């Protein structure tokens, strides 16, 4: 790549030797077949000397648009990326397509600036310059006439946007921005202490209840609140102990519960640690959590989104034929306290952004 750049720059230097300065940083040259911009911080425009006055006007507008958009700088950055990832065909495609889009954007800038419809004349001027040699499109410091066929097609299909259309679009966009600013998605901070109650405690699970009490702090959607289930429903949920409901009015929107875990003694990659924490949730046949996606991680804690898969019991049918449903969930573990929290939602009414916001807000402290 370095050799190619050096040879290309030498060739470019020889091509513009003898160019005559037309005005500030604009030059006329006899030995170039098409106009181009060269340079990054002090770019120069080189024009073929054979251009007519009308063509020169179009082309100057085009090349000046490149400079105003900082296209030479972005082209160099793209070429550096290509040099580093020369083995990746997607980077080659991105380099080619970005150059094409830059040219088309500048073509459209020219047509917007001209009062009359110049599509035919402008396309013809491009077509007239397709003969002869052109600046190689791989040279990172120069913009030349490339992708002529695609550019002509784009020019001929270009339509100026009506001022009324633009004004209407601006008004609609402004109204949306104002509406979002005046009515943002609201949330409220909640604090829930676990174990939430002692119902369900027995000799079998006494160690799980005898943990250091902690308080969950979480942002809930507006109108949601925490509530204890009825006494007969307390004790345990499929995901853990002392479940607490998140209610919207009289509707249960989610259930939060906790459980304890033991540290795995063997070596295990950090990215797989969650598998040892949530083994009871991951290994069920009729009820299990999958699609673990970390959201917030630290040395001792991690919050993640997950999907809860569960089978809906059908009377008179075998378990294998029960229909399976899914619902979103949030998981959180703390290595120091050796506890995890599971939040299972009752439906998929929350957006992904809302789920992310809730997951990012989760933290626990010692209960007061």
Which descriptors apply to this entry?
single chain, 368 residues, alpha+beta, Protein Transport Mog1p, Chain A, 2 domains, 5-stranded mixed sheet, 11 helices, 28% strand
Write a structural description.
This protein has two domains: 2-164, no CATH class; 187-366, Protein Transport Mog1p, Chain A, CATH 3.40.1000. The two termini are 65 Å apart. By secondary structure, the chain is an alpha+beta fold. Strands 8, 9, 10, 11, 12, 13, 14 and 15 form an eight-stranded antiparallel beta sheet that branches. Residues 132-141 have low confidence and may be disordered. It is built from eleven helices and 16 strands. Helices cover 36% and strands 28% of the residues. Strand 9 (236-237) and strand 10 form a beta hairpin.
Helix-strand pattern? HEEEEHHHHEHHEHEEEEEHHEEEEHE
Q: How does the major sheet shape up?
A: 8 strands, antiparallel
What's the domain count? Answer: 2
| Helical content class | 25-40%
Distance between the termini: 65 Å
What would the CATH topology of the largest domain be? Protein Transport Mog1p, Chain A
DSSP strand count: 16
Unreliable parts: 132-141
CATH architecture of the largest domain: 3-Layer(aba) Sandwich
Give me the Rg, rounded: 33 Å
Overall average residue pLDDT: 83
Structural class given helices, strands, pairing? alpha+beta
What general outline do the C-alpha atoms trace?
Answer: elongated
* CATH top-level class of the largest domain: Alpha Beta
Beta fraction of the residues? 25-35%
In DSSP terms (H or I, runs of 4 or more residues), the helix count works out at 11
